[in-house]
Amino acid sequence: MTTDFQLTECEAYYKGKPLPFGKPIEEWEKLFGKPTRKFHEATFIWDHLGLAIDNGNVTKDQPYDPSFEVRKHDKLIIFYSNLDSPAGQKGKLKFAFERESAAYLINEYKKGNPALLTKELEKKITDDRSIGGEMGPDHFIYPYTPYKQTVTIDGSEIHAGISLKELNKNRKAKDLETFTFRDDNMNLVDESGTTNGDNGEYWNDNRKIECPKKQNYYFLNSVQYSGAELEYIKIGYRVQGDDSPYF
User: Fold this and answer.
1) Domain shared by 222 and 161, yes or no
2) Residue 239: helix, strand or coil by DSSP?
3) What are the pLDDT digits (tens) for 192-215?
């Protein structure tokens, strides 16, 4: 099996080279090339690769800081879905919830309120959701092209369109812990351990970090499902002893 991204709790590689977590953006550019655009100051996007680096520990207007103390919170996101995917068109994606595509919204008007769909309204809907419009794809983190290749987490293959059920079947076949729901949505319902795979983030909640003794860091890997569609894989970097709940 050939895959560019190979991820475990102790290692994270792209084409055989370590992912440079904790380091400035210039180190990532050596792997992926120059980002095609930025989303605020904290997010770098490679539209042609389906990749983005995001940092939730800084404000959107905070100047870029290359220091390790800031960059150690960078997250790499591998997007298998974007605004043009089925879940994206229906407004189901995590970072673009209720942002429906022009085609989807126009079709809904035609089915429910055709008399309201004037030529002017149809043009406004289309223009608003085009690049440069108020709800254009350039206003969202989603790359214009989703990632198309497989990724391995703990040696288990993940690919576009894979269901959580199939993902966990692959993990069980390799005697790995299954991915279960990461219950951080603050809805006051304990959903830990569930494997519905419709909406939410899933990871190995029973992981045991067993990296080499001299290694003072590890990685957190999770998958996001939205509208029962694999939206993305997220990779985070964590220094040993850092028990921050943020990921």
Assistant:
1) yes
2) strand
3) 788 888 999 999 988 878 899 899
